[in-house]
Amino acid sequence: MTTPSRPALTLAEVAALVRGQLRGDGGVVIAGVNTIRDAGDRELTWTVGEPHTRKLATSRAAAVIGPTDLPATPMPAVLVSDVEAAIATVLERFLPDRWAPSLGVHATALVDSTAQLGGGVAIGPYVVIGPRSVIGAGTVIHAGAFIGADCEIGEQSTLWPNVFIADRCRLGRRNIVWSNAVIGRDGFGFIAREGRHRRIPQIGTVVLEDDVEVGACSCIDRAKCGETRIGAGSKIDNLVQIAHNVRTGRGCILVGQAGVAGSVHLGHGVVLGGQVGVTDGVEIGDGTMLTAQSGVTRSLSSHLVAEGKPAQERHRALREQAAARRLPELLDEIRELSKRVRRLEIATDHSASD
Amino acid sequence: MTTPSRPALTLAEVAALVRGQLRGDGGVVIAGVNTIRDAGDRELTWTVGEPHTRKLATSRAAAVIGPTDLPATPMPAVLVSDVEAAIATVLERFLPDRWAPSLGVHATALVDSTAQLGGGVAIGPYVVIGPRSVIGAGTVIHAGAFIGADCEIGEQSTLWPNVFIADRCRLGRRNIVWSNAVIGRDGFGFIAREGRHRRIPQIGTVVLEDDVEVGACSCIDRAKCGETRIGAGSKIDNLVQIAHNVRTGRGCILVGQAGVAGSVHLGHGVVLGGQVGVTDGVEIGDGTMLTAQSGVTRSLSSHLVAEGKPAQERHRALREQAAARRLPELLDEIRELSKRVRRLEIATDHSASD
Amino acid sequence: MTTPSRPALTLAEVAALVRGQLRGDGGVVIAGVNTIRDAGDRELTWTVGEPHTRKLATSRAAAVIGPTDLPATPMPAVLVSDVEAAIATVLERFLPDRWAPSLGVHATALVDSTAQLGGGVAIGPYVVIGPRSVIGAGTVIHAGAFIGADCEIGEQSTLWPNVFIADRCRLGRRNIVWSNAVIGRDGFGFIAREGRHRRIPQIGTVVLEDDVEVGACSCIDRAKCGETRIGAGSKIDNLVQIAHNVRTGRGCILVGQAGVAGSVHLGHGVVLGGQVGVTDGVEIGDGTMLTAQSGVTRSLSSHLVAEGKPAQERHRALREQAAARRLPELLDEIRELSKRVRRLEIATDHSASD
Predict the structure, then answer these.
(1) Burial A267-286 (b: 16+ CB within 10 A, else e)
(2) Minimum Cα–Cα distance from A243: chain B residue
(3) What is the pLDDT of residues A65-81, one digit of tens each?
(4) A349 to chain C nearest CA, in Å?
(5) Chain B within 8 Å of C34 (Cβ-Cβ)?
(6) Which residue is closest to A234 within chain C, CA to CA?
(7) C162 and B150 in contact by Cβ < 8 A?
(8) Which residues of chain C does A259 touch, with a Cβ-Cβ cutoff of 8 Å?
(9) Which of B203, B264, B345 to mutate to test the interface with C (most CBs of C within 10 A)?
């Protein structure tokens, strides 16, 4: 493939970039980054410690970034106090430019005459922007995205193709919304009367604070009244469902296919693992983390690691799981115990009747 | 924000609108609706009873809608026999107009010359409608929606941006299909022969009866042969998967991220909670309700509340869950019991050998 | 409805098509295919054996395809050694033509001048194709699909409306990607530093080998570095999430709403049932099959059938499930046993103190 790539660095330049300590030949050419297993002889790799470090013996990598106590390695190294941060910096350096709409408004974009566009926006082809919506400076909107009426999109945000933002939703600065995400659908509220489901009108809206990222095909419903609100710096993966009137604190992480029912409140820094479900009205305290596929049916306090369905403190959940795994043998044990008791009863009975 | 809002009402007008009984100052101005917690001093709130009613003491709400036996409240009230229905009526009154395509066909929409459009349709920009498809009167199709060939879309329906309706699918009257929903993908059927998966052609179609709503990013696959059919008045939330040849009765509710495998039959009024999974070929009787994350692996009769995996009658499932929570302590008990039996055996043995 | 349908066959022609043995009137007209229950009197149905065969007694079907040992049936039959393959062949014959973009590039499609289009491509309206991307011969790209820069789409592939393929992704030959699928979103990787989530740049890509199918609204994320790779002949259903750096072997099947976390490796022919979740870094051996809703938290060897969370060998999982269902009664048994032991202890004590 002829992917345009970023120019190569020397290892000495890498060391300078990450403010690390060079060990070995600083002239080695680094043209990219890859895993220990897949790195080629012009690529940098990394290790945070064992068991990865020992695999360097069979790696073709040109050089490695590792912790300051990294043992001797077959290839030159850059030693740093924070390997993950350093490798993120190097990845940033090698990130290819993305193809994006040109500055300005594409000839095929339909921007309502009452919409306001900030400086340096890039609006791609076939984009639709409704009346009175405001697009912040430097924001990029890719092809086919649809923004309704009376929306606000903050500065320096990126909306990928075919995103749908319904009327009156507000996105903060530096938001990233991935393809086919849907923000502001009417909350799923009905009342059953005379055998029919009557729609409860949803007059509220959705607010994403600054630095929020929403994954592809994720859905955030508008509130029945008031707001559905995602806290600043929260990151939402693909195919996540967030129902009406949910509120999250700052810096939450919702992993792929997690689902949050109506009126749930998440504190700051809550982490929902993949496919986690949270039932309506529940509150989860700051910093609590749910492992994948957990089901939260009751409110949880802060700074827990919780698991299972119903979700509970993880050590307890693991003890129960371990006990459950012993269940079939336990049945045998109890059957055996019952027989022994029966034998004792007979013996005691005999002894009593002696 | 300068969202255009609907004109305010007096509380007396609200009482008239919902046919309720006014208690207190009918001249209070109501400019919107909000929750007890978030309502401002020009907003109406509501309560269906405790524990909500007691929270009115600290609410800033201008007035409250409550049941006919509502105790005295700090703000004027409107008393009604059906609070939920009344508040839905008020929400309807305050629902802002939605921004929608203008009547007629947008200049950029590509409508095949053999398609038929009913009176009063509104076809937005960049919409594609295939040959021989029929769009009912009063239907609104938002930007970027795609309707294949030989489709029927009933009257007064709304298709939101970027919906995909494949060839030959039929939607009833007053359907609402949210953004990025996909109706009529080929059912996921393959036969494995000689180590390869051969596609089973899916010649059937999808039928949505009247008053069906399909959430954002939900997928309803076409039948292998015959129809996948969703019963009248059924409501489907976001990110729901409905496989080929599924049939549902009238008035079913499928909550977010539920998944229904091939050839499942749901009766009338079945409710699937969030993230519920139903395996292929299963039947679920009328009115049966599955709690969130349940896994249905066997057919279920009607009017059950079922839970767990495999899903079973809820009281039974809860008893098993409660027992499972006692498992770790049970293991200790059994270990202890075993020791006591051992001691008894030794004692009895001694006594026998005395 | 006036769906254009394929011309009818005689049953003798059906027998010739599937190389089966005709039993009864070969002149019967076959205008379609349907299930035993729904087939009309001009439609063919099929059975692979009981309990289906006995239902033929009440079927209106014009004829049936069945196995070579099919008992006498009320309607003429075609006997074959492989019923499923035969019916797939007949379904293929009756599959209506799909409505697709015309050959060439639609006037509204925006194809970058540096993109390369193979012979016989059909590029629909409002499609966007970025710089240097290469579209193979015979490939069909439906309305509104978006292909970024430096992509490769193999020959004879089909991309349905509103698909998003991000920069640098590579699809093999005969790929099918359904509507609103998202390929190449940045992997969901962050590092938490000083209370903020910093994005880890994702410089890798996505590779789909030949004959891969991706369902509607499914998401396959690009690798942090290197590739996320889906093996040849793998089939992915709707709403499936595949995270960065996942690799699958050939011929895998991922059923609806399955989710695979980062750096998971699946062997050849792995089957993930609906809503299955696989945690990051796990390896699953060739031919292993996970039943629906299972949660894989540890690596699994090859050719297992596994179930539950944590997923384990199915027979073992079923034994544990069966034991769990007995738990409430078990608690009663143990309570009873404990009483009996207590009585024995008292008796023995008395006897000892005699």
Answers:
(1) bbbbbbbbbbbbbbebbbbb
(2) B256
(3) 999 999 999 999 999 99
(4) 9
(5) yes
(6) C197
(7) no
(8) none
(9) B203
Q: Which CATH number fits domain A104-315: 2.160.10.10, 3.60.20.30, 3.40.50.300, 3.40.50.1240?
A: 2.160.10.10
Per-residue pLDDT of chain C (354 residues; tens, 9 = 90+): 334 478 899 999 999 999 999 999 999 999 999 999 999 999 999 999 998 999 999 999 999 999 999 999 999 999 999 999 999 999 999 999 999 999 999 999 999 999 999 999 999 999 999 999 999 999 999 999 999 999 999 999 999 999 999 999 999 999 999 999 999 999 999 999 888 999 999 999 999 999 999 999 999 999 999 999 999 999 999 999 999 999 999 999 999 999 999 999 999 999 999 999 999 999 999 999 999 999 999 999 999 999 999 999 999 999 988 888 888 888 888 888 888 888 888 888 776 555
The span from the CA of A114 to the CA of A116, in Å, is 6
Facing B149 at nearest CB: one of C88, C99, C211: C99
CA–CA dist B114, B266 (Å, integer): 36
Is residue C195 within 8 angstroms of chain A, CB to CB?
Answer: yes
Residue B171 has which token pair?
């939607």
B133–A contact, CB cutoff 8 A? no
Superfamily of domain B9-94 in the CATH hierarchy: MurE/MurF, N-terminal domain (3.40.1390.10)
Task: Output the 3-class SS for C197-222.
Answer: EEECCCCCEEEECCCCEECCCCEEEE
Give the C-alpha separation, C333 to B333, whole Å: 12
- Residue C143, SS3 per DSSP: coil
Q: Is residue C244 annotated as a catalytic residue, yes or no? A: yes
Which pair of structure tokens corresponds to residue A34?
């890859």
- Say how far apart CA A142 and CA A181 lie, in whole Å: 13
What are the residue boundaries of the structural domains of chain A, listed by start? 9-94, 104-315
**Min Cα separation B273/chain C (Å):** 14
Which tens digits make up the pLDDT trace of A141-153? 999 999 999 999 9
Q: For residues B250 and B83, give the distance between their C-alpha atoms in angstroms, rounded to a whole number.
A: 25
Q: Which of C322, A319, C321, C341 is nearest to B326 (CA)?
A: A319
Chain C's closest residue to B217, CA to CA, is C217
